[in-house]
Amino acid sequence: MFNTTNKKVSIFLILLGIIYLILSFRLPKYAYVPVDSDLVPICLGVLLLILAGILYFTKDQEKKEDDERIPKKELPIVLGVIGLIVIYISLLEIIGFVLVSVLFLFFCSMFLGYKKYVINGIVSLVIPTFVYLLFDSFLQIQLPSGILPF
């Protein structure tokens, strides 16, 4: 049953998805809202279970033992992105979704080596604004506004 890496990882993800779904179904229900607060977590949990099931039946590619570790030259990049994610999470409530997402996308892309700063700036502005409007207007789910007045 656990003879390949894909199967081991998929079993772990399936168990994680089941726990996540159980906790998602325990979220409080609200009256008078068109989309309840548990819709997105439940959809994400179902998606995790589906993808983990697909991973279970996917064959592992044959590789050498050395390929399982992160190369030493890429370790600072991975740690840098993890650091940016931690900063993003810690500033989300304080600064707000739109501003912190714009800053995160711009600086993370710049950190990873993307050199077209104008396009990077435009994408970093458009995507979080679109997501905020989608959640606020269509789904009627409040995202942290932070220091912005809306």
From TrEMBL:
The chain crosses the membrane at residues 9-27, 39-57, 77-105, 117-135. Residues 10-144 form the DUF1468 domain. Keywords: Membrane, Transmembrane, Transmembrane helix. Pfam families: TctB (PF07331). The keyword Membrane applies. This is DUF1468 domain-containing protein.
